[in-house]
What does this fold into?
Amino acid sequence: MGASMEYKRLEREDLGGVADLDRQERIDVIYEQRGVDLHERPGSWNSPGWDPHGTHDHSVAAQRQALEHYVDAGGIALGALADGRLVGIGVVVPHVRPEIAQLAFLHVDAAFRATGIGRRLSDELDCIARDAGATQIVVSATPSQNTVRFYLARGYVVTDRPLPELYELEPEDVHLRKAL
It folds into this structure.
């Protein structure tokens, strides 16, 4: 991309930068999880950008509120900045259960995907979780093919035993876990 990249821990007041992320994505395949098996469903589930004005689930306000919730619950937010602009953000909550961390949020701007930013954020969040005493990390992943393949390539495996509160919040997500 030619941009100067910086990775740093974000403070609560930095979380509003999520508004700068373009989350648009073309999605031609999603997965349905049945136990530990994934079943492909072709179609068109394209994801638009976050609504800058509304307050519904896919709005900037809701994303900022979610990030603040995770940080207030002890989560650590990391940002990837290109020439000072937030282009990726990830949050790990180190202690959702004894020895279990949650990768609670990971988004990379559409123009910066497939450049290693997501991998770097994921790796650094794994280290934070491990340093905090976690031996596993869980994630409820958007069931898009790109997202699920990303996590599988990072060493996650599909689990048929997701944390009940995560499953209740997002039953259509693909639930994964990884040993740290």
User: Anything to note?
Assistant: The chain has a mean pLDDT of 93. The chain has four helices and nine strands. Residues 22 and 109 are 5 Å apart (CA to CA). The longest helix spans residues 117-131.
